[in-house]
Backbone:
Protein backbone atom coordinates (compact mmCIF):
# COMPACT_ATOMS: atom_id res chain seq x y z
CA UNK A 1 0.00 0.00 0.00
CA UNK A 2 1.30 3.44 -0.77
CA UNK A 3 1.75 5.83 2.11
CA UNK A 4 0.02 9.13 1.30
CA UNK A 5 2.73 11.45 2.57
CA UNK A 6 5.39 9.50 0.70
CA UNK A 7 3.68 8.29 -2.47
CA UNK A 8 6.95 6.92 -3.89
CA UNK A 9 7.51 4.45 -1.04
CA UNK A 10 5.77 1.11 -1.06
CA UNK A 11 5.12 -1.02 2.00
CA UNK A 12 4.03 -4.63 1.80
CA UNK A 13 1.70 -4.83 4.74
CA UNK A 14 -1.92 -3.77 4.96
CA UNK A 15 -2.86 -0.51 6.58
CA UNK A 16 -3.85 -0.94 10.21
CA UNK A 17 -5.80 1.29 12.60
CA UNK A 18 -2.55 2.07 14.46
CA UNK A 19 -1.16 3.59 11.23
CA UNK A 20 -3.92 6.19 11.08
CA UNK A 21 -3.64 9.65 12.56
CA UNK A 22 -5.62 9.85 15.83
CA UNK A 23 -7.72 12.80 14.72
CA UNK A 24 -10.59 11.91 12.33
CA UNK A 25 -10.05 15.03 10.22
CA UNK A 26 -6.33 14.34 9.91
CA UNK A 27 -7.06 10.71 9.00
CA UNK A 28 -9.56 11.81 6.36
CA UNK A 29 -7.11 14.33 4.86
CA UNK A 30 -4.32 11.76 4.89
CA UNK A 31 -6.38 9.10 3.10
CA UNK A 32 -8.06 11.54 0.73
CA UNK A 33 -4.65 12.99 -0.19
CA UNK A 34 -3.36 9.51 -0.92
CA UNK A 35 -6.39 8.75 -3.09
CA UNK A 36 -5.95 12.03 -4.97
CA UNK A 37 -2.28 11.24 -5.61
CA UNK A 38 -3.16 7.81 -7.03
CA UNK A 39 -5.81 9.29 -9.31
CA UNK A 40 -3.36 11.98 -10.47
CA UNK A 41 -0.86 9.25 -11.39
CA UNK A 42 -3.44 7.53 -13.61
CA UNK A 43 -4.49 10.83 -15.17
CA UNK A 44 -0.87 11.81 -15.94
CA UNK A 45 -0.06 8.44 -17.49
CA UNK A 46 -3.29 8.62 -19.50
CA UNK A 47 -2.29 11.97 -21.03
CA UNK A 48 1.12 10.63 -22.04
CA UNK A 49 -0.26 7.46 -23.61
CA UNK A 50 -3.12 9.32 -25.28
CA UNK A 51 -0.72 11.76 -26.94
CA UNK A 52 1.46 8.92 -28.25
CA UNK A 53 -1.59 7.00 -29.45
CA UNK A 54 -2.96 10.03 -31.30
CA UNK A 55 0.37 10.61 -33.05
CA UNK A 56 0.69 6.97 -34.12
CA UNK A 57 -2.94 6.70 -35.24
CA UNK A 58 -2.82 10.03 -37.10
CA UNK A 59 0.39 9.08 -38.92
CA UNK A 60 -1.11 5.74 -39.79
CA UNK A 61 -4.30 7.24 -41.22
CA UNK A 62 -2.32 9.88 -43.13
CA UNK A 63 -0.01 7.29 -44.63
CA UNK A 64 -2.89 4.98 -45.56
CA UNK A 65 -4.69 7.85 -47.28
CA UNK A 66 -1.50 8.93 -49.06
CA UNK A 67 -0.82 5.34 -50.14
CA UNK A 68 -4.31 5.06 -51.53
CA UNK A 69 -3.97 8.38 -53.33
CA UNK A 70 -0.66 7.52 -55.02
CA UNK A 71 -2.17 5.67 -58.01
CA UNK A 72 -4.66 8.49 -58.54
CA UNK A 73 -1.96 11.13 -58.24
CA UNK A 74 0.27 9.09 -60.55
CA UNK A 75 -2.37 9.24 -63.27
CA UNK A 76 -3.03 12.93 -62.71
CA UNK A 77 0.57 14.14 -62.94
CA UNK A 78 1.95 11.52 -65.34
CA UNK A 79 4.58 10.35 -62.85
CA UNK A 80 4.98 6.75 -61.73
CA UNK A 81 4.12 6.95 -58.03
CA UNK A 82 2.25 3.66 -57.85
CA UNK A 83 5.08 1.83 -56.12
CA UNK A 84 5.22 4.55 -53.46
CA UNK A 85 1.59 3.76 -52.71
CA UNK A 86 2.54 0.27 -51.59
CA UNK A 87 5.34 1.62 -49.41
CA UNK A 88 3.04 4.16 -47.74
CA UNK A 89 0.28 1.58 -47.25
CA UNK A 90 2.80 -0.80 -45.69
CA UNK A 91 4.14 1.80 -43.28
CA UNK A 92 0.62 2.93 -42.36
CA UNK A 93 -0.50 -0.64 -41.70
CA UNK A 94 2.69 -1.29 -39.70
CA UNK A 95 1.89 1.64 -37.43
CA UNK A 96 -1.54 0.14 -36.73
CA UNK A 97 0.15 -3.15 -35.86
CA UNK A 98 2.56 -1.32 -33.53
CA UNK A 99 -0.40 0.36 -31.85
CA UNK A 100 -2.10 -3.00 -31.42
CA UNK A 101 1.01 -4.88 -30.29
CA UNK A 102 2.06 -2.31 -27.72
CA UNK A 103 -1.47 -1.40 -26.66
CA UNK A 104 -1.02 2.33 -27.15
CA UNK A 105 -4.69 3.11 -27.68
CA UNK A 106 -6.00 0.51 -25.26
CA UNK A 107 -3.56 1.74 -22.59
CA UNK A 108 -4.83 5.29 -22.37
CA UNK A 109 -8.44 4.14 -22.46
CA UNK A 110 -7.73 1.69 -19.66
CA UNK A 111 -5.94 4.37 -17.64
CA UNK A 112 -8.93 6.67 -18.05
CA UNK A 113 -11.36 3.93 -17.01
CA UNK A 114 -9.29 3.22 -13.91
CA UNK A 115 -9.02 6.90 -13.00
CA UNK A 116 -12.80 7.22 -13.31
CA UNK A 117 -13.35 4.13 -11.13
CA UNK A 118 -10.97 5.52 -8.52
CA UNK A 119 -12.64 8.93 -8.61
CA UNK A 120 -15.98 7.22 -7.99
CA UNK A 121 -14.53 5.30 -5.07
CA UNK A 122 -13.05 8.49 -3.67
CA UNK A 123 -16.42 10.22 -3.85
CA UNK A 124 -18.12 7.26 -2.16
CA UNK A 125 -15.46 7.30 0.53
CA UNK A 126 -16.02 11.01 1.12
CA UNK A 127 -19.77 10.54 1.46
CA UNK A 128 -19.41 7.51 3.77
CA UNK A 129 -16.90 9.46 5.82
CA UNK A 130 -19.20 12.45 6.21
CA UNK A 131 -22.08 10.19 7.28
CA UNK A 132 -19.91 8.26 9.73
CA UNK A 133 -18.53 11.43 11.35
CA UNK A 134 -21.96 13.06 11.59
CA UNK A 135 -23.44 9.92 13.17
CA UNK A 136 -20.47 9.23 15.44
CA UNK A 137 -19.60 6.05 13.55
CA UNK A 138 -16.49 3.90 13.79
CA UNK A 139 -14.27 6.07 11.60
CA UNK A 140 -11.06 4.00 11.94
CA UNK A 141 -12.90 0.93 10.64
CA UNK A 142 -14.42 2.97 7.82
CA UNK A 143 -11.04 4.47 6.97
CA UNK A 144 -9.51 1.01 6.64
CA UNK A 145 -12.44 -0.16 4.48
CA UNK A 146 -12.13 2.87 2.19
CA UNK A 147 -8.41 2.26 1.72
CA UNK A 148 -8.96 -1.47 1.19
CA UNK A 149 -11.62 -0.83 -1.48
CA UNK A 150 -9.40 1.67 -3.25
CA UNK A 151 -6.30 -0.53 -3.05
CA UNK A 152 -8.26 -3.54 -4.27
CA UNK A 153 -9.28 -1.65 -7.41
CA UNK A 154 -5.65 -0.69 -8.09
CA UNK A 155 -4.51 -4.29 -7.52
CA UNK A 156 -7.21 -5.67 -9.84
CA UNK A 157 -6.24 -3.21 -12.56
CA UNK A 158 -2.55 -4.02 -12.11
CA UNK A 159 -3.36 -7.74 -12.46
CA UNK A 160 -5.24 -7.01 -15.70
CA UNK A 161 -2.25 -5.04 -17.02
CA UNK A 162 0.12 -7.87 -16.12
CA UNK A 163 -2.08 -10.42 -17.88
CA UNK A 164 -2.38 -8.19 -20.95
CA UNK A 165 1.41 -7.74 -21.07
CA UNK A 166 1.99 -11.47 -20.69
CA UNK A 167 -0.54 -12.23 -23.44
CA UNK A 168 1.10 -9.68 -25.76
CA UNK A 169 4.50 -11.20 -25.07
CA UNK A 170 3.17 -14.68 -25.84
CA UNK A 171 1.61 -13.51 -29.11
CA UNK A 172 4.89 -11.85 -30.16
CA UNK A 173 6.85 -15.03 -29.33
CA UNK A 174 4.36 -17.21 -31.20
CA UNK A 175 4.56 -14.98 -34.26
CA UNK A 176 8.25 -15.76 -34.70
Residues:
Amino acid sequence: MLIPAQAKQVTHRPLEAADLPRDPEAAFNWIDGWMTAQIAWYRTKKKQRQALSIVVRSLSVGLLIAGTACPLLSAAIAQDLKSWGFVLLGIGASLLIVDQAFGLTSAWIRLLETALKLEGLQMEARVRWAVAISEGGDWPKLALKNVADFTSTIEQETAKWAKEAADASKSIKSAR
Remarks:
- Residues 58 and 160 are 27 Å apart (CA to CA).
- The chain has a mean pLDDT of 85.
- The beta strands are 2-3, 6-10.
- The chain is about 80% helix and 5% strand.
